[in-house]
Amino acid sequence: MKKILNIAAVTIFLLVTSATVHAQKGDVKFNLNYNYSMPMGNFKDNIISNSSPRGGTGEIIYNFSSKLAIGGAFGYQDYYQKYPRAVYKTGPNETTSAVLSNSIQTVPVMAKLTYSPAGNGGAVQPYLSGGAGAAFVDFKQYLGEFGSATNSVSFVAQAGAGVFIPFGKLSAAGLRLGADYNYVPYNKDGFGALNTLDVHAGVYFPIR
Amino acid sequence: MKSSALITVLLGVIVFVSSCSKQPLNNLTQDETRIYITDRDSSANFATYKTFSISDSVAVIHDQYANKALTASDSAYIAATTKYMQQRGYVLVSRSQNPDIGVDVSRVYSTTGVINYYDYSGYYGGYYDPYYWGYSDYGYYMPYAYDVYQITEGAMSVDMLDLKNASTNKKINFIWTGLIRGEGIFSADNADTQVKALFDQSTYIKANN
Fold first, then answer.
1. Which residues of chain B lie closer than 8 angstroms to A92, CB-CB?
2. Would B20 be classed as within a structural domain?
3. Which residue has the higher pLDDT, B144 or A66?
4. Model-level pTM?
5. Which of A41, A60, A68, B165 has a CA positioned 20 to 30 A from the CA of residue B126?
6. Mean pLDDT of chain A
7. How many domains does chain B have?
8. How far, in Å, are B55, B80, B101, B103, B161 from residue B47 at the CA level?
9. What pLDDT is stored for residue B148 in this prediction?
10. Residue B164 forms part of a structural domain
11. Residue A26 binned pLDDT confidence (cut-offs 50, 70, 90)
């Protein structure tokens, strides 16, 4: 996990540095969001069905017109589930009775495009967004107290929608509410995709 | 906002959020830490065995050495194993009465790394010398291997040996092994439920009476 956090820190540094350069030309904002994530499909059915209230995202947006913005996004989410004791077949004739715990931490880092069809003039500004990048995945699985861990990087693609709600008519800061669908084709060690539906709420503010 | 200040804020947020992560090992009760592993010789027909004998003490295997012990916990494990063997229809006899199955109970510790059970008879200071079961000319043979049978700390094991066919096979085959790992396993209070768990997941252990 420390390795993932280090990579995330470097990525954030590059994003912020990049945004600072772009700020000479236009409007650069930063979003900071609380994120609630719901596993979907295989992730929900076979790995972790519990939703995760433990996550956050950040995003740096450069508005190069009133309707279009590009940016970089990162996040962190922690998923965990403990299953009641059950007997698992762990070899040709070997069985193991154990409480199974799955623990997954994801750190997505993405480039994003945001489209606000109504521009930036209203009290509520809807938007659509899309993004793609890499998700650093730390997957730990425990039988009782005995665990194994796999660190890997997976492609991630995201589609989302939401609203910006400025604090005032002329304010460059405000609230952001939205939802994203994340496609993460993990496919490691017999496990399939780690797709999620996320809802988030946060604030945005200019950084220049 | 200056970029350095923003980075500081963001790193603070990341550290805060990551500290909110659920730690799986902190969310387990003592019972939930335990795992019960069983493996068997798939060619063994447990219905063909009728009698068994169980070692009169427990082998304490510490790294590559062994000695005998009989603590309250050890006695509880021997009693529990005897109880569940009898519940499955096997008749307890003494070693001198040519039992079909020999049962060993062991406490296993390792401070140096992994114990490989293929070295069963070679490492453990003579306690598991086949002579104990009356077959001094034969060696042991384990026809199965555990995927997760690597002991790097404490474990409790129960092994069943095929004495009925030892002369025919010219070796003493393992036909079943149960392994218990986790917290609180060396407790007399937990012995019965833990041995029961091994037998519960091994329904094929049944005499044909």
1. 42, 144
2. no
3. A66
4. 0.82
5. B165
6. 87
7. 1
8. 22, 21, 12, 16, 14
9. 45
10. yes
11. very low
pLDDT category, A24, cuts 50, 70, 90? very low
Please give the Cα distance from B74 to A179 (Å, whole number).
Answer: 58
Domain locations in chain A? 2-206
**Domain boundaries A2-206, corresponding CATH code:** 2.40.160.20
Where are the alpha helices (H) located in A23-114, listed in sequence order?
A: 41-42
Say if the Cβ atoms of A93 and B20 lie within 8 Å. Answer: no
Query: Chain B residue closest to A75 (CA)?
Result: B14
More confident residue, A11 or B80: B80
Q: Does B5 touch chain A (CB under 8 A)?
A: no
Can you tell me the distance from the alpha carbon of B45 to that of B40, in angstroms, rounded to the nearest whole number? 10
Stretch 61-100 of chain B: residues touching chain A, C-beta under 8 Å: none
User: How many interchain CB pairs under 8 A, A with B?
Assistant: 126
Chain B partners of A147 at a C-beta cutoff of 8 Å? 24-25
Quick check: is B168 in a domain?
yes
Closest partner residue to B38 among A95, A98, A99, by Cβ? A95
Say which of B3, B20, B182 has its CB closest to residue A54.
B20
CA distance B96 to chain A (A): 32
The CATH number assigned to the domain holding B160 equals 3.30.160.670
Rounding to the nearest 10 degrees, give the CA dihedral for residues B135, B151, A87, B193.
70
Could you tell me if B144 lies within 8 Å of chain A, comparing CB atoms? yes
> In this complex, which of A17, A76, A95 lies closest to B17 when CB atoms are compared?
A76
Assigned domain for B23 exists: no
- C-alpha B110/C-alpha B151 separation (Å) is 7
Q: Which of A12-16, A17-21, A176-180 has the highest average model confidence (pLDDT)?
A: A176-180
Strands B91-92, B51-54: pairing kind: parallel
**Tokens representing residue B93 in the block:** 């006899």
**3-class SS shares of chain A: helix, strand, coil, % to 5:** 15, 60, 25
Per residue in B159-199, pLDDT (tens digit) is 999 999 999 988 888 999 999 989 899 999 999 999 999 99
Question: Which range marks the domain in which residue B39 is found?
Answer: 35-200
* B147/A90 touch (CB, cutoff 8 Å), yes or no: yes
How close B97 comes to chain A (CA, Å)?
Answer: 31
